[in-house]
Amino acid sequence: MPRANRYFLPNYVWHITHRCHKKEFLLKFALDRQRWRYWLFEARKRYRLCVLNFMVTSNHIHLLVRDQGKGEIAKSMQLIAGRTAQEYNQRKKRKGAFWEDRYHATAVDIVEHLARCMVYIDLNMVRAGVVKHPAEWPMCGYHEIQNPPARYAVIDQTALLDVFEFRNRGQLQQACREWIDGNLISKQQTRDGAWTESLALGRPEFVEAFKRGLDIRGAYRESAETENAHVLREPSLTYRTHFVGEMGSLRGNNTVLLE
Asked: What burial class does residue 134 get, using C-beta atoms within 10 Å of its C-beta: 0-12 exposed, 13-18 middle, 19+ buried?
């Protein structure tokens, strides 16, 4: 079963990434992406997982969640990853690992960086060159926020209203559109490894507080400044602000969109 990195602390907002085994395109069919989302809904229902955003691509997922200190994230990841892999392997008569062993979790500073994290997740398939706008990719939080389903919603819009201090859903929808449109206009869509490789990301005081919370585990972790944030990272990791598209080989012919 998948495990988190060893630096998890309760009561933070976490950006979680989990890749398919050997970066294979095991989620390339719409059915498998739908099943992943179904089990995300089940995790919210069973464990009260607070989902702020999500993205299902053809070979990995992004998940933005707010921890409530009840162990719901670990239980949810075990449920989602386990059931998705089991269903896929049974249908394909396949054996072997579906996911990488560990999923990665980055603590995100909600004061200044949460909106940027939302946008980074939403633009994943735009960076990959599959779509021109996140509204064209059904398996993402942006699509659900703009088109709330009557049933089986996974985004906790009440939590989003609370964390961003919006008065209503209309304000949330408008803000999300403006964040995306502004980013598309400025063409700031390159991959930033800090979002997916660091242990914590935000203001200097946020990163230092997180490091202190790790106690002895944080003793040899490095604090560093990137172009847009401070990060806590492993000594061996190097961050660059600009990357090539993280899934440059992923194109429309490798995907199956929902009808």
From this structure: buried
